[in-house]
Amino acid sequence: MTDTNLTVAVIDPSRARAAILEEGLRAAGIGRVVVVPDTADLMERVAALAPDVVVIHLESPSRDILEQMSSVTRQAERPVAMFVDRSDAAMMQAAVDAGISAYVVDGLRPERIRSILDIAILRHNAFARLQRELSEARGELADRKLIERAKGILMNLKGLTEEEAYKQLRRKAMNEKRKIADIARAIVTTADLLG
Prior knowledge:
By secondary structure, this protein is of the alpha/beta class. It has helices at residues 15-27, 42-49, 63-74, 89-97, 110-158, 162-176, 180-194, and strands at 7-11, 32-36, 53-58, 80-84, 102-105.
């Protein structure tokens, strides 16, 4: 899964731990590893580096760090693997809510880093795919509701049956080379304006 073309940002305030992570990543064949020694202006720094994956190691995550990681996973759309020395159930839940792709407690060993990185990438990609599918489904549902409302307007105004109203929407969409939902939106907007 991982390859030499990946860029990995390592965020760790401890130089010793950062060196372990960097060593493990290089041994796993990662071509570019950039160490970020602190979390100041983290979102801007990650955006400037544009890494493929973010790896962070902390003794114990704080709410502030998790909020920053949430920004990284959602705005920069990067998988994040987090290594922590100690944690509790509330922090684990907060990490999941923040979109952390891999959350590893007391498990920083160089030989494990590649597989953890791979799973972080896979989980991030799976979550992104689910988010896209959810967004598309919501859009389709909104379009269906709009079409139903437009059919109702046509039925009331022109005394059409539901099937005739739909055929009229479809015919207009085909003639104008537009989507039925776009035609329905125009009808609903006009009806709303005319009250």
